[in-house]
Amino acid sequence: MSTSDQGDSVSVIPGTKSAREALFDRLAERHAQVKAAQLSRRTHVQMQPGTEVCEASKLTKQNDFLSNFLQTKTDILADLDRAADQTRTDSLSTSDLTKILDETLVRIENLQKRLNESSLYLTPFDCEQATLELKNLQTQFQSKREELLPTRKFKFTKNRVQKTTTPAVSEVTPTSEITEHSGHIPSSLTKFDERFSLTNFEHDCQLVIPKPGCTDTIGVENSVYLAQLNRCTVHVRDVCGNLIARGLQKCRVYIYPVAGSVWLENCHQCDFVLASRQLRIHQTTDCRLGLHMASRPIIENSTGLQVAPYRLQYAALQSDLTRAGLSAEVNLWREVEDFSHPNKRLTTGSPNWSILPETEWNSLKANE
């Protein structure tokens, strides 16, 4: 993995000892530069007899922040490398790895908050350097997370069940793996399991998956497909692997935790209440979303979206979050990235989404 786009001159290849040493050498060099800058600033303050005490305090804050910032980054990278080593030797379970990655994400988000708070007294140069370092850390974390805990591809396949009868399947559903560069679902066709699919319903239908009479659970190995629904209420009452919703109008959709990705496309005037690892929203307007997210939601070519925390409550919620590999403590519901906005990496400033007023959050609860 190359980090040259982050202002670094060292190409880092995960998993190699020399690359790791080069990375820590570079961080140590940065740390030394910060220390030198600290000394220079203190000397400058001492040489100014009329310098105010508040100015000296400001410089102290700058120096302390930069030093702690780089040290925190170094610690996070070291912890990720340690987790990777333990994973390769099978000494770390998937649940423990998920917990470590979720905790690391919280540490990175806290680092972002500290940078935002410190921007009031940091110099423009220091603020820019810290921003580049943080972006580099986020890139390395995402790469390491995908390496250690890859998500399933967003596709539908016929479920193999040991029964004398085979569920009917259709061959009309396009598929996709949600990536930053995918602007639409590819036109290639694949199969989806009709047991866990709902299409072409309208006019106040109350729909449930698994369907009434179906004795099979969905499970993380299967996906859910919703299409061409109008004025329907949908309850997905089991953990699933992935979910696609296309062409929904004025629907209310309540979804138990999703272990992989959710894709919403061409949906209008709907409510979605969902918990998932990834979320991509495309060509969707005037929808409200109650979210529990392990990563930042991504919207594209969409307007009038309002987000709020996940409001679905039921007895087995905590265990279902665990089954889906999600942490109850980590929720990036409000960290929306708008890929149609010039500053797509910023989680504020886009006119295409907003936070739903807190007085309306409970209106996203399911009425059962």
Automatic annotation (TrEMBL):
Presence of keyword Chaperone: yes
Cellular component terms (Gene Ontology): cytoplasm
One Gene Ontology term from the biological process aspect of the record: post-chaperonin tubulin folding pathway
Subcellular localization(s) per the UniProt record: Cytoplasm
InterPro entries hit by this protein: C-CAP_CF_C-like (IPR017901), CAP/MinC_C (IPR016098), CARP_motif (IPR006599), TBCC (IPR027684), TBCC_N (IPR031925), TBCC_N_sf (IPR038397), Tubulin-bd_cofactor_C_dom (IPR012945)
Segments forming domain C-CAP/cofactor C-like: 186-341
Keywords annotated in UniProt: Acetylation, Chaperone, Cytoplasm
Single GO molecular function: tubulin binding
Gene3D superfamilies the UniProt entry points to: 2.160.20.70, Tubulin Binding Cofactor C, N-terminal domain (1.20.58.1250)
PANTHER family assigned to the protein according to its UniProt record, in alphabetical order: TUBULIN FOLDING COFACTOR C, TUBULIN-SPECIFIC CHAPERONE C
Subunit and partners: Supercomplex made of cofactors A to E. Cofactors A and D function by capturing and stabilizing tubulin in a quasi-native conformation. Cofactor E binds to the cofactor D-tubulin complex; interaction with cofactor C then causes the release of tubulin polypeptides that are committed to the native state.
Membership in a protein family: Belongs to the TBCC family.
Protein name: Tubulin-specific chaperone C
